[in-house]
Amino acid sequence: MLIIGPPGSGKGTQAERISGRLGIVAVSTGDIFRANVKRGTPLGLVARKYMDAGDFVPDNVTNNMVRERLQETDVHDGFMLDGYPRTVDQVDYLDRILAAGGQKLNAVLQLTADNEELVGRMLHRAKETARSDDNETVIRHRLDLYHEQTGAVVEQYERRGILTQVHGIGSIEQVTTRIFDSFDCLVQAS
Ligand code: AMP
């Protein structure tokens, strides 16, 4: 499954909780990039300048990284992708990776939230963590990119009938409960 949401919507936190309960691995492209930046790998050096500016890392770089990650054995029985795909090109690429591996997407979860609420949350997070992409100009740019590019991604999954939307504002526990309630509805409807 996939989890999609604007920056600051808590999708990383929810991805960990959901994947933990479902017993599947969470794969976050943002976390993989950050780990590479920290280790100073060639991938990290490329990714860093895009991340610091709040831009997307180019599709070819991101797609190759995801393809390699999804070839590892821990994801054979299922996974939750957090932060990928973010562009229509990435949707197409993921379709090809999954088809080649004989896998298919079961569900796409979108966390929704109001922009100003998200800006406030991220500015608060910036005080607690040292994320280099959590300043107001970069935050607003990341939100703009999300709406411009990822809106089309969400539409594709909506057309396929596998999208579930959950309101992402509330306590961590409230949002997790909403997500599992929506899964129950999905299971009952199928
Ligand atoms: P995140 O932690 O998901 O907000 O991702 C942090 C940053 O990593 C993003 O602002 C992008 O620069 C980069 N990134 C993560 N996932 C992707 C992706 N699917 N495509 C392009 N860039 C990405």
How would you describe the overall organization of this protein?
The protein is α/β, with parallel strands linked by helices. It has one domain: P-loop containing nucleotide triphosphate hydrolases (Rossmann fold, 3-Layer(aba) Sandwich), CATH 3.40.50.300. Helix content is 61%, strand content 11%. It is built from eight helices and five strands; from the N terminus they run βαβαααβαβααβα. The chain has a five-stranded parallel β-sheet. α2 packs across α3 and α4 packs parallel to α5. The protein is globular, with a radius of gyration of 16 Å. The structure holds adenosine monophosphate. Adenosine monophosphate binds next to α2 and α3.
Q: How would you characterize the largest beta sheet?
A: 5 strands, parallel
CATH fold field value? Rossmann fold
Average pLDDT reading: 92
**Beta fraction of the residues?**
5-15%
> How many discrete structural domains?
1
Computed over alpha carbons, the radius of gyration is 16 Å
Q: How many individual β-strands?
A: 5
Fraction in helix? 55-70%
Could you say what the CATH architecture is?
3-Layer(aba) Sandwich
- Structural class by sheet pairing and helices: alpha/beta
Going across the major beta sheet, what is the strand order?
2-3-1-4-5
Shape: globular
Can you write the helix and strand succession as a string? EHEHHHEHEHHEH
Low-confidence stretches: none
Number of helical elements? 8
